[in-house]
Amino acid sequence: MIGSFTKGRVYVFVDAANILYSQQTLRWKVDYKRLKEYFKKECDLRAIYFYTGRVGENDKQNHFLKKLEELGYVVKAKEVKRIRVSKSAFEWKGNLDVELTIDVLKNIDNFDTLILMSGDSDFASLLDTVKSQNKRVLVMSTKGHISRELIQRAKYINLKKLRDFVSYGK
Questions:
Q1: Comparing C-alpha atoms, which of 78, 151, 75 is closest to residue 120?
Q2: How far is residue 167's CA from residue 24's CA, in Å, rounded to a whole number?
Q3: DSSP alpha helix (H) spans, the chain
């Protein structure tokens, strides 16, 4: 499916927080082993990066991230912060948008197609920059989690359409 939209060497960058929310909407989980296999089958995958907030010494999360590394993902994680949003409420924040952006720009000469698995409008300027270098850009997310700014700048692939290829239990 995505093979017809890519050209040349492909790098994938996964914004885990955005994909987590997409999974909640879709009511199924991405199998990251199958996801990588799908990309390898569909295009000339050269690298796949995964960005996530780390929640302390969470054995389950650490095991998951180690498995991703064993599958060949480049995992970038940083500790989440507790942010006060009101007098009595806190929110956990582990934003890695800057790290993802830096890695895309550091690797811009290594790919011909960027696949960004995120719907975050903060990446609009990044997509403009990548496209200005004559690169092809795809974004993958789901309805309700993809910004208008990204849809206007890139080929949008609804993750829902990939269920048979990348979900657990299929």
A1: 151
A2: 13
A3: 16-26, 32-42, 59-70, 97-106, 124-132, 148-153, 163-166
Paired tokens of 25: 């909407």
What are 9's strand-pairing partners?
Answer: 44
Tokens standing for 125? 């300027």
Total structural domains in the chain? 1
Which residues are registered as beta bridge partners of 74? Answer: 49
d(CA 44, CA 112): 10
9 pLDDT exceeds 80?
yes
- With 0.85 as the threshold, say if the pTM is over it: yes
Residue type at 37 in one-letter notation:
E
Q: Which residue has the higher pLDDT, 56 or 36?
A: 36
Give the structural domain span for 125.
Answer: 2-166
How far apart (Å, rounded) are the C-alpha atoms in residues 64 and 76?
A: 13
73-121: per-residue pLDDT in tens?
999 999 887 777 788 777 767 789 999 999 999 999 999 999 999 989 9
pLDDT for the residue numbered 159: 82
User: What's the CATH number where 161 sits?
Assistant: 3.40.50.1010
